[in-house]
From TrEMBL:
Protein name: Helix-turn-helix transcriptional regulator
One of the GO BP terms on file: regulation of DNA-templated transcription
Domain HTH luxR-type per the UniProt entry, residue ranges: 355-420
Keyword Transcription regulation belongs to the record: yes
Length: 422
């Protein structure tokens, strides 16, 4: 095909989708699909993104009110990946929709008030389906390779949604329980009306509790299920590399993992396994997960010569992911015996510094440096972990001494400890 005849707008849309950050991927998909399938709004529902399972663009009245419960109900009604035209409740009322499900990720695309550009709408629908499958795969890839900034944002969003859901559940539960108590009162007449309203209210209460549980499920993943997904991720490597990968499973009753921790843990283990298998004379890698109730404990070990470099760029990238979740990564290299990697990922958000610490008026970078001092890190290590020079670290340490009114690192660490900074 001559270059001028190539479908450049479509190719540019594909390129825009491939490069889109997760926060903008719904807008890019809407821009790409509008020439082929118009509509009032576009909503993506994906459980791969625990922090923001909905990604939306279009009519604000719709995207601000579309709920997880509505999308979950619609998705459950779809039997396969075939496009579905029909009516569904979205944003509080029944609307015409086009819905497509992505089989491997179980993600859902919904276009409200679809308006095909061609009368037969077959070619346009084929292009929308193609663009959706590309988008769903890109979402999975981007989440799997999520940078530290995404992990931090996801954890904050997950915590905020759980807090809001808990507040709403408490509020409405109290209201409904009060109604039930009143309606069950023997002083009220019209038993038939009382019975009917009691049944309706009980169903509403059950529905609210179910919605709360469903929201919690979206931001948490059972540790055994998370580990099984890791096994599936690594299955092709065990099949084609000739290297044996042993999986030591976590306890079935282990605490559920926050979604961002589960995603990060799988990505970290995949990265470690790939780094280990690239070494010479490695025939076996063992990975083990455990949970102590507060942390996910990961151990990955190989049987190579102990050539894994702790300062290699691939390990540094993994360490940044670990640090984004306030975790720790330690490598023990044993020449002639292999490498042993230990990763600890906290399951809960770190406690904020006390008001006294906030009163020190520390800049964000100064607080990071102080936290590294408390962890016992030297200037060179701090510089490496924060991606700055040693001279810059020294500059921040001097500022810390002035703001904390101390004369040494020991005094600074002791003062930080006394104010609850760990």
């Amino acid at each position: 095909m001559p270059l001028p005849d190539l479908p450049w707008p479509l190719l540019q849309s594909v390129a825009a989708l491939a490069d889109a950050p997760l926060a903008q991927i719904a807008e890019r998909l809407r821009d790409a699909t509008l020439p082929f399938m118009g509509g009032s709004a576009l909503v993506i529902f994906t459980e791969d993104c625990t922090g923001r399972p909905q990604k939306k663009a279009g009519d604000e009245e719709i995207i601000s009110r579309a709920s997880i419960a509505e999308l979950d109900t619609l998705r459950a009604a779809l039997s396969d990946e075939a496009p579905w035209f029909g009516e569904a409740e979205i944003a509080g009322r029944t609307r015409p929709v086009l819905a497509l499900k992505h089989a491997s990720s179980n993600a859902l695309l919904v276009l409200t008030d679809p308006a095909p550009a061609d009368s037969g709408h077959n070619s346009g629908l084929d292009l929308v389906t193609y663009l959706w499958r590309l988008t769903a795969r890109r979402i999975r890839e981007k989440v799997a390779d999520a940078p530290p900034s995404y992990l931090l944002e996801s954890r904050a969003a997950s915590a905020e949604r759980l807090r809001v859901t808990a507040e709403l559940t408490d509020l409405h539960s109290t209201t409904l329980e009060t109604l039930l108590a009143a309606l069950r009162s023997s002083s009220l007449e019209d038993a038939a009306a009382r019975s009917t309203v009691t049944d309706l209210t009980a169903k509403a209460l059950i529905g609210l509790r179910t919605h709360s549980d469903r929201t919690t499920d979206l931001v948490k993943e059972p540790v055994a299920k998370a580990f099984e997904r890791l096994r599936e991720d690594l299955r092709p490597l065990t099949r084609y590399s000739g290297i044996e990968i042993e999986f030591i499973e976590p306890p079935l009753n282990g605490r559920a993992l926050p979604g961002e921790v589960a995603h990060a843990a799988r990505a970290i283990v995949r990265g470690l396994v790939l780094a280990m298998t690239e070494q010479p004379d490695v025939s076996r890698v063992r990975t083990q997960w455990d949970c102590d109730g507060e942390n996910l404990l990961i151990n990955v070990r190989d049987d190579g010569r102990g050539a894994l470099a702790a300062d290699a760029p691939s390990i540094a990238r993994l360490d940044r992911r670990v640090q984004a979740l306030t975790g720790q990564l330690r490598i023990d290299v044993m020449p002639g015996w292999g490498a042993d990697v230990f990763v600890t990922l906290p399951l809960d958000l770190p406690t904020r510094p006390s008001g006294d610490v906030a009163g020190w008026d520390l800049a964000a970078r100064e607080l990071e440096v102080l936290q590294h001092l408390v962890a016992g890190h030297r200037n060179r290590t701090i510089a490496s972990k924060l991606g700055i020079s040693e001279n810059t670290v020294k500059f921040h340490v001097r500022n810390l001494f002035k703001k904390l009114d101390v004369g040494s690192r020991t005094e600074a660490i002791a003062l930080a400890h006394s104010h609850g900074l760990r």
